[in-house]
Amino acid sequence: MFMANVIEAIWAPESDEFARHSIRAGAMSALELYDAVAGRRMEFVGYAGHHTNCNLLLTSGCSHRIRGRKLVGCSMCDYHSSNLEGWALMRALLKKDPELYARAVRTSFEAVRPDRPAPAFCEQVTGNDCLDPVEFPPQALEVLFQGDGLFAKNPRCYMFEVLASHVTKRSVAEFSRRFSRGQTLFFDFGVEATDWLRRHWINKECGDDQVASAIRVLREAGHYSVADVLIGIPGVTEEQSVRAFLDTMRLLDALGVDRVFCLPLNRKRKTLQGFLHERLGQNDRLGALGLSQGEHTGVPWLFTIVEALCRAFEELPTLRGRLKLAAIRSDQVVIENRLAYNANAACACNEQIVAAFERYQKSGEPAHIFAVREGGSDCGCREAYDRIIRKQTQAGPLAETLATLADEIAQELFPADWEALVQSFREELRLLPSEEASSSHNIQNVTAVSINSF
Ligand code: SF4
Ligand SMILES: [Zn+2]
């Protein structure tokens, strides 16, 4: 697939480095490997207002990212290019001694939270995919969650990140037998966008059928489903991002998901949005269509996030209690990142909007977000936004926008054989549902509403 080639190319330097670490790790004994990784600190984030902690574990890494010695993975994710050596060492250790691997996973928790701490109400204890039998073999699950466990007493609630495609009756039953009946288990998986965008542009191997099955299996097992959805698809117009978000929310609402975490796209280094900013931020053709915007390339505008949320609340009122916002401040993202902003990241209108998001987070009351949509802003960001929106109408419907982006990405990354790759992408585009492909750009209406309401 076109996007797999793109991500493989973006990660090529890291793949080389990972291969070097893997060769070195392959020559080490299990004990040497254990000594090299034991007690490595991973990220820990405490969300005080939410009574939730996020404990990231050192593991053998995401199996979707690591393909042999090549790194591919989802296009918007840079989870975790700074940890190449750790993945290589842990993969070698896993191969040589799964028991020691399991102990090493546990030491990464203890390095940050020693002496079996008192738990927060909800503890997220996670790697990339807790249902992946490679990343979390039975030995690791046993060392983490059986016997005395990790905490002084059982947390009321646990949250685990998984891939929807790994959620099956069997995998969930095998995983959850380690927890008591009184504990609430949330399983959080990336839905990100509509089916075609998820598989062909985000490069996540997971169809709507697997999302539906994951939600059903979790419900039947008495657990809770949490879907992560992006507001902002790398490269496309602001309006197309809003539409993709709404289509995805409609699907999840119909499937009866328990919670949705909405993530405004943020720009990180080894991602498609990072590449667009770094290499195509000044591209003339994309610039004329508003698809690249200099420094702003690769992150949505905050006005777009507000618009997407308001439209979701208007159309799907039953989602209100279930919709949460994630990563609305930089320090809530464990990797260096640039968050959504308006014309100027330093302008006060950004803080007003983020503060409204936080009020929504606390109260669950959408009125806080409607208030910023209706409150207006006289800082100039709104006019700049309208200019970019008008420009983006030239990018045509989604299929045309994606074809244009693919042209420019391929010429930049694969100058020798870009035409063949673009041709193959056009074949993929034929699978884009016609309604999604040709959805016209109703941004004129949006702009009219927005001008009145900001
Ligand atoms: S989003 Fe999840 S599945 Fe995709 S590459 Fe990142 S860690 Fe792996
Ligand atoms: Zn402003």
Question: Please, could you describe this protein's structure?
Answer:
- The protein has helices at 2-10, 12-26, 30-37, 84-96, 98-112, 138-145, 169-176, 195-201, 208-220, 238-255, 272-280, 284-288, 302-315, 348-363, 367-375, 381-392, 398-413, 418-429, 434-438, 443-453; strands at 44-47, 52-56, 66-67, 70-71, 122-126, 157-162, 184-192, 224-231, 259-264, 323-325.
- It is an alpha/beta fold.
- The protein has a single domain (2-348), classed as TIM Barrel (Alpha-Beta Barrel).
- The strands form 2 sheets. It has an 8-stranded mixed β-sheet. Strands 3-4 form a two-stranded antiparallel ribbon.
- Strand 5 (122-126), helix 6 and strand 6 form a beta-alpha-beta unit.
- It starts with a helix and ends with a helix.
- It binds iron/sulfur cluster and zinc ion.
- Iron/sulfur cluster (SF4) binds next to loops.
